C-alpha cells in the first residue's frame, strides 16, 4: 500500500518539475526583396531548429544576399521587430557587417510562455529602402519529457501489482 501511495505522489508532482520548451516550427525562410534596382534574397532562420534541453538559447539569423551571385551583401542595416497580439515584444536596429559567421547578423532571442501563439517577425528599412518582410511565427509549447516519464511510471503500476500477486480494482 505504501508503494502505491509513493508512486501516486510521484506521478502527481512529477509534471510540476517539467521545463517548458518552445519551438517555431521551421528552420528558415528565403524571401525575395528588391533594393533599388537590385534583386536580393533575405534569409531568416532560427537555430537550433530542434529543441535542445541542455541549451535554452536560440538565435535568429538574418542574411541578405545578392539575387544573382548569392554573395552576402555587406554593411546592410535593417530594423527587426517581433509583435504578439499587436504589442511589440522586441525591436532593434542591426547592421550586417559581413564579418559575422556565415555572413549573417545573429540575434539571441528566447521565446517564453508569454510568446505562445501567433507572433509576427517584421524586418524593415532593409539597406535604407522601403522594403520590408513580415513572417508569421507560430510559437508552440513542445511536449515535455516529464509527461513521457509520467506515462511510463503510471504504466508500471499494473505490472508491479501483477508481479506482487495483487490486483488493482
Automatic annotation (TrEMBL):
Listed transmembrane segments: 143-163
Keywords attached to this entry: Membrane, Transmembrane, Transmembrane helix
Name of protein: Copper-binding protein
Organism from which the protein derives: Candidatus Nitrosotenuis cloacae
Lineage of producing organism: Archaea, Nitrososphaerota, Candidatus Nitrosotenuis
Amino acid at each position: 500500500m505504501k508503494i502505491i501511495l509513493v508512486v501516486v505522489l510521484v506521478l502527481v508532482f512529477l509534471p510540476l518539475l517539467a521545463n517548458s520548451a518552445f519551438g517555431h516550427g521551421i528552420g528558415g525562410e528565403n524571401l525575395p526583396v528588391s533594393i533599388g534596382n537590385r534583386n536580393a534574397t533575405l534569409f531568416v532562420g532560427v537555430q537550433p531548429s530542434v529543441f535542445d534541453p541542455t541549451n535554452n538559447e536560440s538565435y535568429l539569423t538574418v542574411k541578405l544576399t545578392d539575387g544573382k551571385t548569392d554573395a552576402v551583401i555587406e554593411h546592410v542595416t535593417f530594423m527587426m521587430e517581433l509583435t504578439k497580439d499587436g504589442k511589440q515584444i522586441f525591436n532593434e536596429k542591426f547592421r550586417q557587417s559581413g564579418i559575422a559567421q556565415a555572413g549573417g547578423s545573429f540575434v539571441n532571442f528566447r521565446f517564453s510562455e508569454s510568446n505562445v501563439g501567433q507572433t509576427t517577425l517584421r524586418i524593415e528599412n532593409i539597406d535604407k529602402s522601403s522594403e520590408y518582410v513580415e513572417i508569421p511565427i507560430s510559437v508552440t509549447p513542445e511536449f515535455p519529457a516529464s509527461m513521457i516519464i509520467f506515462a511510463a511510471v503510471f504504466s508500471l503500476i499494473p505490472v508491479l501489482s501483477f508481479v506482487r500477486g495483487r490486483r488493482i480494482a
